[in-house]
Amino acid sequence: MTASLDLAALVVGYVRSVLIYIVPYLLTSLGIVISGRSGIYNISAEGVMLLGASVTFLATYFSSGNVLVGISYAVLVGILVGLAFGFLTISLKLNQFVVGTTFFILCSGFANLLYKLFIGVTLTPPSIETLRPLTIPVMSDIPYVGDSLFKHNLLVYLSFVFVTVSYYVLYKTHVGLNFRAVGENPKAADTLGINVTLYRYVGTIIGTVLMSVSGSYLVLSTTGLYTETIVLGRGWISIGIAIFGRWHPLWSLAGSALFAGVEALVYLIQSLQSVLGIRTPPEFLLTLPFIATLIVLALVYKRAELPQAIGRPYDREAPEEYA
Amino acid sequence: MRGIQLIRLIKISVPYLFSVSLAFGIAGLILYLGGYDVVSSYKTILTASFWNLNSFFLTLTKFSTLLMMSLAFSIPYISRKFNIGVEGQYLMGALGAALVGLAVSTPAGVHVIISLIVGIAFGSLWASVPAFLMARYNVNEVISTIMMNFIARYSVMVFAMSFWRDVTSGHPMTIPISDTATLPLLNSSPPLSSGIIFSLTTAALLYFTVALTVIGYELRATGTNPRAAEVFGVNTKLLMPLSLIIGGGIAGLGGALDVTGYYHRLIDGMQSNYPSLGILIALLSKGKITFIVPVAFFISVIDVGTNALQRIQRVPIELVLILEGLLLVFILVSESLRWWRK
Description:
Strand order of the largest sheet of chain B: 1-2
CATH topology of chain A: ABC transporter involved in vitamin B12 uptake, BtuC
Number of strands of chain A: 2
CATH topology of the largest domain in chain B: ABC transporter involved in vitamin B12 uptake, BtuC
Shape of chain A: globular
Radius of gyration of chain A: 20 Å
Number of helices of chain B: 13
Distance between the termini of chain B: 22 Å
Oligomer: heterodimer
CATH class of the largest domain in chain B: Mainly Alpha
Order of helices and strands of chain A: HHHHHEHEHHHHHHHH
Number of helices of chain A: 14
Strand content of chain B: under 5%
Number of domains of chain A: 1
Low-confidence stretches of chain B: none
Structural class of chain B: mainly alpha
Helix content of chain B: over 70%
Order of helices and strands of chain B: HHHHHHEEHHHHHHH
CATH architecture of the largest domain in chain B: Orthogonal Bundle
Strand content of chain A: under 5%
């Protein structure tokens, strides 16, 4: 019973699991933010994540545990999905919500189909080895902080690097300025000689690659298994995070921390319950992230600032926008 | 003149035929790569619904479910709202009907009717949360309805494992509802529930509502150009959330019909992938009810066929989802290419 009373260990464990749960939210919401900044509202994240997870699992499994092969395939799939999404929404100017909904369903379908074709339905699902934690020298020796912050796998650190880099590029460089201009006012950007189509394609593809790699992380971080419910709404919640974060990388980081905090809390309460012997149906707790999303959206939506041209295809020959 | 019209008809139908064959071609390629005999697989997929009366009735049952789900998506879609919460609303409708069927005892005729009404009420209540968030806080309905789906899934799980749990089954489900709460059968063996009558009637009623009534007109006006509709006195701020609630009621009725007419109990996961199929049907039909009915029937034929194939040869049922999704993508592409050429 001493374990349940050790507050320091509890806090260290909590912070540690927040950092484990933050990654999928962070990568996916960053993907949504980046493509949104170029004017493409991609709501298919949930499906792309599942496809990334499935492909990563299969590629790693059949390359006898080579994680790099797994992630490379996820990146490749992300590029292909992004190209297809871009072709439909940028070149053919189709409604982004219609295409997004279709892609969500199609990608989820493909993810499960691929798994069933290659693995089939098995009594005990096969698993792959998960990513090993990288212990950062010196820093990891700091008491408490080291255990909670500096003993994670590579993708955890990388996702924070991605956020920083994308913030820097979007807000501190010329390319970033062009990029945001395309999402705010494509006509003005076009007048200035910025290639709207190219920027939007790049934004869309970076977005889907991040979503797909986020799926890889889900498979590679803790269980090493693929299940049909592995994403479990994280892709949709990430859209909420992007809205909460006003399509800004650093605010999305804050939003991701909030939702990772809620998720970690769910599992913390569950483990405390088993220690303390209280029993409630776990399903009540599991609805918490979704209820939290609804509340957060209700609180922030009135003041939400979307990129001005998000969701609208750009047509050079169209008359002045009136929507 | 006749000849010109014929040529025009061919010109219009060529892109669609091309899309259908391309989608079937890619799905066939998947079957081929999966090591299945493509020709015999397709023969099974397309004909299994008509092998015997039993599988034909099963097709009609699935058709009824899919019809309700795509109608639930299409009514909000007419006013440009995306009701991806069909799944949750369907489940809550099913839960409501199961609750009445298990906990209430009234004479036979009344019991079913109460079940269906409670199903509709639960479905619309479930949709009214996103509708309220939209009306009051301007929250985008796509995400809020999805969140409600997840909450509904867990609610069904809790309910199916509580008081009325069927302990003989390893899967979370309730015990059967009382006989008085089941829909009358159209045919006793093989069984066909009268649910299909209800869903076709719903489709007809909705068609006339959208085509002929004031609210239907306003709904269409809102969808075509919300700004113009508002200028001409349509209360779009009220109409958009209302369309979502109506959609929720339709999905709820769908769930209630399946519980009272087909499953006779609440089962965890009973929605399967029908919500996705239903949404794709509505998108394929562009929300037009006259198209939804035949498309939904076609998709249920393919669904029953693929399920038969899964039993015989272990072909994953996701194939239906992919076939339909690809069909939608190719049709969208061919249509926009046609506009583009003009």
